[in-house]
Amino acid sequence: MATSDPTMTLQLIDTIQRLGVGYYFQEEINNILEKLTKVLPDDDLYILALLFRLRRHNGLHTNPQGIYFFMTRLIIICYVVFNISSSLFLLNMMSFFSSKAKVFHNFMDANGELNKSSSEDIQGLLSLYEASYMGSTEEYILSNAKEITSIHLSRSVSQLSPKLHQKVVDALRLPRHMRMQRLEARRYIEEYASEDDHNPILLEFAKIDYNMVQSVLQRELLEVTWWWEHLGLSSKLFLSEIDMLSVFFGLLDFYRS
């Protein structure tokens, strides 16, 4: 899967996962993302944000709750045993653990706004906007980035090429992280097929996989519907068939994410 160009490798991983076939290569994807973290430059907003989003999407980050549970106890130990200032230690620890998100500081000025070159990089802005939805509640820089990028993208959307215009509009309407994976795969298969540089083998593979998964889900839905009707769950649970379908697809997306 890896290529000699780290940028192309990241884009390929993103494409594979958007097509819905990333689960076939999950271990390889994780290994590549770990390696690329050490070699990619930190001055390319598009690539940096893409790497950040892909890492978070694939679970390659520390649980914030685990961080603060660990930090609290370590602060107490250092304060009691080593007489280290708890406030100073807390500041240093937070700086260390949030370093992944802080790398985006390179693209902002002293006022917390995007610098001129970054604000004109639409691909980079879009990439950062999508990445901002992968932040935790403690990563305030990503919350700020979400607000700033959405403003810049909204202002520039009317000046973009038709293809980029549609991508920005779709993202502002519903960020990729919030989309249902199988529905997004179905939509992206059509979009990818229209791209001049698409890989026909990968495209055909994605179509076959989508049809196979769809067939399995249709059988599962038939079984669930049968049990729903024959056990009289609609009257016992006071739920309609539409509610049952909502639960089915909700659990499906939760499981596959």
Automatic annotation (TrEMBL):
Domain annotation Terpene synthase N-terminal: ranges: 4-65, 100-172
UniProt EC number: 4.2.3.26
Single GO BP term: terpenoid biosynthetic process
SUPFAM superfamilies: Terpenoid cyclases/Protein prenyltransferases, Terpenoid synthases
Transmembrane segments: 67-91
InterPro entries: Isoprenoid_synthase_dom_sf, Terpene_synth_N, Terpene_synth_N_sf, Terpene_synthase-like, Terpenoid_cyclase/PrenylTrfase
One Pfam family matching this protein: Terpene_synth
GO molecular function, one term: transferase activity
Top-rank EC class of the record's enzyme: lyase
Alphabetic keyword roster: Lyase, Magnesium, Membrane, Transferase, Transmembrane, Transmembrane helix
Official protein name in the record: Putative terpenoid cyclases/protein prenyltransferase alpha-alpha toroid
Organism: Helianthus annuus (Common sunflower)
